[in-house]
């Protein structure tokens, strides 16, 4: 059976940081592992390029929006290429095929009766592209996710009947206890759903930088909500709504996300898929966050770890090893130069370096450096099979 592994598509409002690299290293390692075992594996990454925030960032940089998105997107792609990330496709939400696929999906959900038109009035955080209820705001004004102040917006909007899928979602979490990994993260999702789901606003009229409505609906004022557009990339990348050429890879084996976007992937995304009559991904894997020297990283503090700088200074393999080794999957981790250097010195230079040295010494001494590669592969296959983490 084939494997399909995804990272989130990264938002092009800023350059790649260590959090992006972490998700990408995890997904890349899993994809390499499956490919090494001989599994037919498809690995997707890419960039998320629509929404008001991108429009505004482009304006601030005095650039046409598409040009701005092109530059940041290329930055991500170049970094992954320089890091040897083994993706099979790099999708951009400004790709024509993606936009067509999203329109097809919107149409299908609409025709099913799961989308209706109404008015939305709520507190909107431009930075997170998310509406919040009064209850969710901090001190009645500030975004609970990023802390920025929110605006009250009333606008005509199309809504997705998310509330209709409450019971089906809860049943899915119960029937599939490994749907959300690690399991410890499932409770926050289940409690959120149990708290009651409100229908989800899935279009905007306040900006234009987004996927246009399908022609059959004829409502040019609206563009699609960035999360609907973005989440659908996981199937449009396989040709959903257009060529369908790689749809046999669906459902995904595992979709890796940061814990901050778990709610979107474990609630909205499966609900959209149910509405589209598509099977749900086998696993949503949510990893933790990185701090630096015990402190939260932020642009304003100027303490964001530049992935490229670390990789240039110490080598990408060292960085990859450190991040994957330092933190059990799902937990938060701390990046410090001390911890990084200690781990590389003790585990890679000393332990692994020593092992390699001895092997080379022994193979010279006992076999004149000749080892039959088929024997090695045979041994590896047994070992890898024994370690197999069953994803199905
Ligand atoms: Zn926010």
Q: Can you describe what's shown?
A:
The chain is of the alpha/beta class. Helices cover 43% and strands 18% of the residues. The chain is built from 13 helices and 15 strands. The chain has helices at 18-36, 52-60, 65-82, 96-111, 166-175, 186-194, 226-231, 233-236, 262-275, 307-314, 316-326, 337-367, 373-387, and strands at residues 3-11, 41-48, 89-92, 115-125, 130-132, 151-160, 180-181, 200-201, 203-204, 223-224, 254-258, 283-287, 290-292, 295-296, 333-335. The strands form four sheets. It has a six-stranded parallel β-sheet, sandwiched between helices. Helix 9 links the parallel strand 11 (254-258) and strand 12. Helix 5 (166-175) packs antiparallel against helix 6 (186-194), helix 10 crosses helix 11 and helix 11 crosses helix 12 (337-367). It is globular and about 80 Å long. The protein starts with a strand and ends in a 5-residue tail after the last helix. It binds zinc ion. Zinc ion is lined by residues 125, 127-128, 143, 145-146, 148.
List the helices and strands and how they pair.
Elements lengths: L2 E9 L6 H19 L4 E8 L3 H9 L4 H18 L6 E4 L3 H16 L3 E11 L4 E3 L18 E10 L5 H10 L4 E2 L4 H9 L5 E2 L1 E2 L18 E2 L1 H6 L1 H4 L17 E5 L3 H14 L7 E5 L2 E3 L2 E2 L10 H8 L1 H11 L6 E3 L1 H31 L5 H15 L5
Parallel strand pairs: 1-2, 1-11, 2-3, 7-12, 11-12, 13-15
Antiparallel strand pairs: 4-5, 4-6, 6-8, 9-10, 13-14
Helix pairs in contact: 2-3, 5-6, 10-11, 11-12
Main attributes of the structure:
single chain, about 400 residues, alpha/beta, six-stranded parallel beta sheet, 13 helices, globular, binds zinc ion
């Amino acid at each position: 059976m084939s494997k399909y592994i995804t990272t989130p598509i990264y938002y092009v409002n800023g350059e790649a940081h260590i959090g992006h690299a972490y998700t990408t290293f995890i997904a890349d390692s899993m994809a390499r592992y499956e490919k090494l075992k001989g599994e037919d594996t498809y690995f997707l990454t890419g960039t998320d390029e629509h929404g008001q925030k991108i429009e505004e960032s482009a304006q601030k940089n005095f650039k046409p929006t598409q040009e701005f998105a092109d530059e940041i997107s290329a930055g991500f792609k170049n970094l992954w290429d320089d890091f040897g990330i083994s993706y099979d496709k790099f999708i951009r939400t400004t790709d024509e095929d993606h936009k067509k696929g999203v329109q097809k999906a919107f149409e299908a959900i609409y025709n099913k009766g799961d989308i209706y038109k109404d008015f939305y009035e709520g507190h909107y955080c431009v930075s997170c592209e998310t509406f919040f209820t009064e209850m969710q705001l901090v001190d009645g004004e500030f975004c609970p996710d990023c802390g920025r102040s929110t605006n009250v917006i009333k606008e005509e909007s199309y809504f997705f009947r998310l509330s209709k899928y409450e019971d089906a979602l809860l049943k899915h979490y119960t029937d599939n206890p490994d749907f959300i990994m690690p399991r410890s993260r499932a409770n926050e999702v289940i409690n959120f759903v149990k708290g009651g789901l409100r229908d989800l606003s899935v279009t905007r009229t306040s900006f234009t930088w987004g996927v246009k409505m399908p022609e059959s609906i004829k409502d040019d004022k609206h563009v699609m909500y960035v999360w609907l557009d973005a989440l659908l990339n996981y199937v449009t990348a396989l040709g959903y709504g257009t060529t369908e050429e790689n749809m046999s890879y669906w459902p995904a084996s595992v979709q890796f996300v940061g814990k901050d976007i778990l709610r979107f992937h474990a609630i909205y995304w499966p609900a959209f898929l149910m509405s589209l009559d598509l099977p749900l991904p086998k696993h949503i894997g949510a990893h933790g966050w990185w701090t630096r020297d015990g402190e939260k990283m932020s642009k304003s503090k100027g303490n964001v770890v530049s992935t490229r700088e670390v990789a240039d200074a110490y080598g990408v393999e060292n960085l990859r090893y450190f991040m994957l080794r330092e933190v059990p999957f799902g937990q938060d981790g701390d990046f410090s130069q001390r911890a990084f250097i200690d781990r590389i010195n003790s585990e890679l230079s000393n332990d692994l370096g020593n092992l390699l040295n001895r092997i080379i010494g022994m193979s010279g001494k006992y076999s004149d450096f000749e080892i039959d590669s088929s024997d090695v592969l045979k041994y590896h296959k047994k070992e890898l099979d024994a370690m197999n983490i069953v994803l199905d």
